[in-house]
Write a structure and sequence with these properties.
By secondary structure, this protein is mainly alpha-helical. The protein has one domain: Tetracycline Repressor, domain 2 (Orthogonal Bundle), CATH 1.10.357.10. Helices cover 80% and strands 0% of the residues. It contains ten helices and no strands. Helix 9 packs antiparallel against helix 10. The longest helix has 28 residues.
Length: 197
């Protein structure tokens, strides 16, 4: 039952907003008593925290699946964007923005985990791109990783509308790629831009 509550609550939080969904709404939607929810979660914040952890795990499972398809480094980044678009396209408001605004403690905890995972993923992508000749050999990998995740996390934490965040992320990805690409990388970037825009 606990997993069912997390799943339904998370769907509702993402669709309707973390702030606006009440425990009553969740109970009503699931045709269970509020008491049943409180049997597993002491309060709404505890439910949100567990729900965001489930989202975090799902995102990283999907990211691992994209990496396993063995795209080149630039194509891989565009495929990651597609994965996020499919996952969040039905939402008007950015889930990260809502979480930061209404539940900053949960957001901060989530971001610490996300940043560490993203640092690792971005580093792997850059190292892969260098080995493929798509990114320059002399790239300062640490700086490039830091610049890129700073851009992405700033966009998601400070952009209210999901559609606007998605568009800004596209510009950040192009900016990031142009900054580190070789001439072959720029050709691949233009190819991906023509496919994905």
């Amino acid at each position: 039952m606990k997993e069912k509550i997390i799943k339904k609550a998370t769907e509702m939080f993402l669709k309707l907003g973390f702030k606006s969904v009440t425990m009553d709404d969740i109970a009503c939607e699931m045709c269970i008593s509020k008491k049943t929810i409180y049997k597993y979660f002491s309060n709404k914040e505890a439910l949100i925290e567990e729900g965001t952890e489930v989202i975090h795990q799902k995102i990283h499972t999907l990211m691992d699946e994209v990496v396993a398809r063995n795209y080149n480094a630039i194509e891989e980044n565009f495929e990651m964007r597609n994965m996020f678009k499919e996952m969040f396209q039905t939402f008007d408001h950015s889930p990260a923005y809502q979480l930061k605004k209404h539940y900053p403690e949960i957001y901060d905890k989530l971001i610490v985990n996300e940043m560490e995972d993203c640092r690792h993923m971005f580093r792997s992508n850059i190292e892969k791109g260098i080995s493929e000749g798509l990114y320059r050999e002399n790239v300062d990998v640490d700086a490039a990783v830091r610049f890129y995740y700073t851009l992405i996390f700033d966009i998601n934490g400070n952009t209210m509308l999901e559609k606007e965040a998605y568009e800004l992320e596209a510009k950040a990805l192009e900016y990031h790629t142009r900054a580190i690409a070789t001439s072959a990388g720029l050709v691949e970037l233009e190819k991906q831009l023509s496919i994905h825009t």
